[in-house]
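OP here, attaching both records as promised.
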Amino acid sequence: MANSSEIRPRVLIVGGGFAGIQAAMHLAGEPVEVTLVDRRNHHTFQPLLYQVALAALSPGDIAQPIRALFRKEPNIDVLMDEVVAIDTAAKSVGLKSSAHLSYDYLILATGATHSYFGHDEWAASAPGLKTIEDAIEIRRRVLLAFELAERQKLETGSHPALNFVVVGGGPTGVELAGAISDISRLYMQRDFRHIDPSKAHVIVVEGSPRLLAAYPEDLSRKAAEELARIGVEVRNNAHVTDIQPGFVVANGERIESVVTLWAAGVQASPLGKMLGAEMDKRGSIFVDEHLNPQGHPEIFVCGDLAHAVENGKQIPGVAQPAMQMGTHAAKEILADLAKKPRTKFHYFDKGDMATIGRHSAVANVVWPFHAHLSGFPAWMAWLLVHIYFLIGFRNRALVLLQWTWMYFGLSGGPRLITGSQKLPGWPELTGSGRAANGAPLDVNSPGAVEGPLD
């Protein structure tokens, strides 16, 4: 730490995601006092959250305690707390614990959360995927659907159709759909006696004319073809107007769904409102070419929380630019301390990629060469990139080992169900072959999956 006679600038970083961690790493060992605040004690590698949600990986494989990352850096403090107020005039923030922290520089990198476009009541029926907690809840629902179907088939001779609906055809939606198809077709088929998990039906509901709208058209088409190959149904130009337990309404049609997942929209962290700066409709803060909100050169906004524009286009809110923004913010602070001029932020776009089930992906490669990859070559590129960017040797080794076991041994990951054993919309049995509403459950009823008991 600093000597008592030495006054060092105080840098407060809010958020332990990609941007916050990168900023802290670049300030480690520098002549500043850093405090990193996050309401969770761990950093999550969000691009692999869907693999936790579909039981391919365990939460600990993609998460790392923030405190452990900086245990050897004496100029970095880590606090598990939540910012509830920002006083830009006094240069201080208020925490949920009632403590107050002052700062000379403030880096805001609190990311984004789900946006249900004004229908927050849909959240209970269609969870999104942003945190470890979200992933565990999705895993619970997906696995529980198969368990309840097995139990109901044994008791009554039938069960509701195993329809899984994913709302949103961006990278998260495509990856969730492919992973659900994989787990039902490849990894669970031999685990059940009375149902056939491979008959599960996955439906992607996308409001735009094509999947992966931000990707080149040829990759979008390849993604649709790969999903069709593994049995995933894609409905484009389908606008969701209602989500209830057990069904989704899109373009006026009711789609039965045992599990509905939300991957259609995001909104910035509510922290932006505390700053009092100009925001866009998603709640992201408009920043200048140095990542500062207007009139506040001591404040840097990074990641999903920043509305940054380059070459007339908004920089996407994904991991790659977030990491670069965190690094840039740290370098700007160090430039100030060295009395050097600041530099403009430039987003170095290396490309985008998304997996589509086992051994398949699409990749729009920009660096080190321009190429559109699909199928197995894209999947290999995706695997190497994600292993490289995982934080910590232990995490890299565990994930690589688990993937090797799964993809070559056809053995699934940790399929553990925790929490409630109730599923929204699933008919509750009374023990008499009838649902809780008294309706008989007939093996020949619509939506039932037929077949003799073993």
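Record two, same layout:
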Amino acid sequence: MRRAPVFPLRVSENGRYLVDRQGRPFLLHGDTMWMWSVVSSRRTPLSREGILEYLDDRVAKRFNTLAMISMGKSDKGVLARDRDGLAPFQREISAGVWDFGSVDRAYFDNLAWLIDQCHQRNLLVMIAPCWLGYPKTGCFQDEVVANGEQRCRAFGQFLGRLFGRFPNIIWIFGGDKVPTDEEAVCQHRIMEGLMQASGENKALQCAHWRRPVEPGVPTLSRDIELFAGDVTVEMTYPASLTYYGCLKGWHCDNQAGMKNPLPVIMGESYYEGQARFDIDGDGVKDPWPDYMCRRQAYWSLLAGAAGHLYGVENNPLAPDLNLPGTRQMEFVLGLFEGRAWYDLVPDDTHQFVTAGYGVKAVIDKAAANPPGFDYVAAARTRDGSLAMAYLPPTGRESRTITAAMGRLRAGISASWYNPATGAYIRIDECPNSGVGDFTSPGDNGSGQNDWVLILETGSSAGDDGAGNRQP
């Protein structure tokens, strides 16, 4: 039986992953609820009963983390209201620009109720206190500047006093935008005030900037120098190729030059059911399918990430609660739990998978299948007791990769893991020296050919996604 995490979390001694209060590794496996369960400018907010149904559904599907935004605003400056008709602020500085000194405590008490409900269900909450947003999309980039450093710090102190008692929080700063210098300074004041007023419960912190669709775009939390020394978790905000940002985070390839490792979290990519848009001018495509979400998760976790976030376009509204990818996310956790995922080292220099690994991207294009979509993300433990390789979806045909078996321990057994079903196929003949070729089974039953190769000492058993060990 699985043991629930004991909050708060902290960074492991080697800086590579998160551990709970008892020192047990915590694989962050999250869903992006964002504003839907708190406020909505587009539709009626969920009732408390609806929110609890959503939380229980996500727990049943084995998510252990939810990402959310504390407040929202329309493009015209109208604040989104919660289920009780409350807004976060009571007065404007100017038309559509809100005064951080006029908080409605009742609104934030409702948010505290939600975080408490998550805590009762052993859910970690990743929450943004003040989402900047894309330019001209609403959100709060105008507010942080108009309120200035003093009021931003005071707003952070208010949040720290109210939410500092919760041990199940990671704060997200930034939000979909490369900040101007003035925006960065003022939002950093929110961070400072929040931490100062949180008491002994100092929550972990990360930052969310922009997708790296061209060179030099800040996409890691530590890419903005002002925040680099304060964040304690490295979030990457990728486009289509999630391994790209995760590998940059793993190698501490951030623009601020910080070389101490931090846990890397794939913070957001594309959403199941979301309409696709290729920035190269190909126009709107069919919605992102389940296999895109599968590859985002496996690519991330085998490229050095200590966790990832999945998302559904209309979450948490039925019928999207039960899209195929939601069930398949259980199989992600089922594969990694019970194995030493926290000791895996990315094989991006191809010391283990030496051939058949496809093309590694040099930039992360926002497209369905940009250059690098066939890349095999692989990782192994330094002691050679475990190695995994994810062959992403490229069609229905089989693929063959070559592995340097001499880099693994003797007595290795092998199996293929089906990420669409959570089922294993044992490989009867597995070389234990030299090199070995492994040919995947092809179509995994979903019309796609993604598989995970597992090489490990002892049994190849894992978890079927429901907590049951495979034979």
